[in-house]
Amino acid sequence: MKVYLDNSATTAMASEVIEAMLPYFADEMGNAQSVHSFGQRAKAGIEKARREVAALINVAPTEIVFVSGGTEADNLAVRGVAEANRERGRHIITTRIEHPAVLATCEALETNGFRVTYLPVSGKGLINPGELRDALAEDTILVSIMMANNETGTIQPIEEIAGIVAEARARGLDNLYLHTDAVQAVGKHHIDVRELGVDLLSLSGHKFHGPKGTGALFVRKGVRLGKLLHGGHHERDRRPGTENVPGIVGLGKAAELARTLLDRRIKRMRELRDHLEKSVISRFDGVRINGDVDQRVPSVSNLSFDGIDGESLLIALDLKGIAVSTGSACASGSIEPSHVLQAFGLSREEIRGSVRFSFSAFNTQDEIDYVLSVLGGPRTLQKEMNPNEGTESLEAQSRGQS
Ligand code: PLP
Question: Which of 33, 58, 87, 257 is exposed most, by the fewest CB atoms within 10 A?
Fold first, then answer.
C-alpha cells in the first residue's frame, strides 16, 4: 500500500483541476495579452480563476496578483512593501518561525538598511500579542506573521494581531502594513480577509490540490508595493511576465473546490489526524504533540517520539510505502535542527525524535490504519529501523526498555 502523509510539502492535484487545465495546454494556447480571440479566451480563463481565488478568501478580484507560488508571494509582499516604503520607515516585525521565504527575505533586507525584529514564540508556538505591541516603533512599515505554521500547523491569532496593527495606525503609524503567509492555511481553515483585516496574504496552489508553480498574493487596494521583476504591464503592473495560463486556471479550479468543499475537507482531515494521534499516543509512551493542540489546522500532526530518531523512522516508513517528513520539506537535507521547533524551545533530542504527518482530504481511514499497523505491528519495521539491534520493537524503544 502507498500512503502519502506529506501533504504540507505538496498535495496531489484534484482530477477536476487537471481536467480544467488540459485545454489550456493545447487548443486554448493563446497569450492572454493578445487582442485576437485566442488571447481573449486565455484571458477569460485567467479572469475566471481570479474571481475564484478572490471568492475563496473574500476579497475583490482586482486585489489578486498571480505569481509563481508561495515563495514569490512572500518575497513580493515583504520586499515589495519594504522597497516602496523605505523613505517612510526601515523597521519590519516578523517571527522566528516563518518560512524561509519570509525569513531569508528579511535577512537580505537587513543587509540593505532595514531593521528586523524577530518575535519569539511560546512552547506551544504562539506569539505573544503584547510583545508585538511593544516591538512596534515609529518607523515600522511591515508586520509579517504567518497564519499556520508549516511544521506544526499552529495558527497565530491573526485577527488580534490585525487589531494591534489597526490601533497603531490610529495612533499615527499610518505607513504600517500587515502581511500573513497563509500558504498552509488556505484550503484547510476558514479565511475571510475582510474580517481578518490583513493588507497582504500569500497563498500557494500546490498546497491545496492545485498545480505546482502557482500562487497568488492578495494586495489590499491602496497598498504601496514595489516590484520584484521588471517588464510589461501584466497583473495591473504588479508582476510582469506572460501568464502561466494553464497553471492559473488550475489554481482557480483548486480554489473553487477548496471553497465549496472546505467544511467536508476539514472534517475529513480532522478525523484522520485525531485517529492517528489517539492511537499513537495510546500505544507508545513518550509521544508528544508539538504545537498548540487547539489552535492548529487539521492537516498537520507533528509528533516527537521519545528515544527515536525521526529520520530513521521516516526511512523505515518509506520502505513500507508511507511518506512522512521530519521538520519541513524545505529544511530537509539540512543538518541543522528545525528552526521552528528550536523556537518552540524543544530540546535537540525532542527535535531529533519529531516526525510530521500531514493529511489531505484524499487520505482514507484505511491508510491511517495501515500506518498504525506498520508503526505498532510485528517486528519488521523495528528491524529496518535498527538493523544492528536485533528485533527490539519500536514500542519497547519508545518506553526506554532497550
Ligand atoms: N510559506 C509556507 C508556510 C510554506 O509552507 C511554503 C512551502 O512549503 C511556502 C511559503 C513556499 O511555497 P511554494 O512552495 O509555493 O514556493
Answer: 87
Between CA 166 and CA 173 the distance in angstroms is 9
pLDDT in tens, 18-69: 999 999 999 999 999 999 999 999 999 999 999 999 999 999 999 999 999 9
For ligand 1, whether the C-beta of 330 sits within 6 Å is: yes
CATH superfamily, domain at 3-9+262-397: Aspartate Aminotransferase, domain 1 (3.90.1150.10)
Alpha helices in 5-68 (DSSP H): 15-21, 37-57
CA pair distance 4, 221, nearest whole angstrom: 39
Active site residue 330: yes
What pLDDT is attached to residue 399? 38
Alpha-carbon dihedral sign for residues 8, 12, 18, 24: positive
Total-model pTM: 0.94
- How far apart are the CA of 295 and the centre of ligand 1, in A? 20
**Separation between Cα atoms, residue 361 and residue 167, nearest integer Å:** 39
d(CA 318, CA 199): 41
Which one, of 310, 316, 307, 349, lies nearest residue 331 by Cα? 310
The DSSP bridge partners found for residue 64 are: 218
Residue 326, all three cell numbers: 521530519
| pLDDT tens column, 135-178 | 999 999 999 999 999 999 999 999 999 999 999 999 999 999 99
- The strand ranges marked E within 127-258 are 140-144, 177-181, 200-204, 215-219
For ligand 1, atom 13, the nearest C-alpha belongs to 70
What's the 281 CA to ligand 1 centre distance in angstroms?
Answer: 29
Which parts of the chain sit beneath pLDDT 50?
328-331, 377-381, 390-402
Query: 15-258 has which CATH code?
Result: 3.40.640.10
Catalytic residue among 229, 281, 323, 330: 330
Q: Are 147 and 299 in contact (CB under 8 A)?
A: no
Going from N- to C-terminal start, the domains of the chain cover: 3-9+262-397, 15-258
Q: Which of 170, 216, 178 is nearest to 196 (CA)?
A: 178
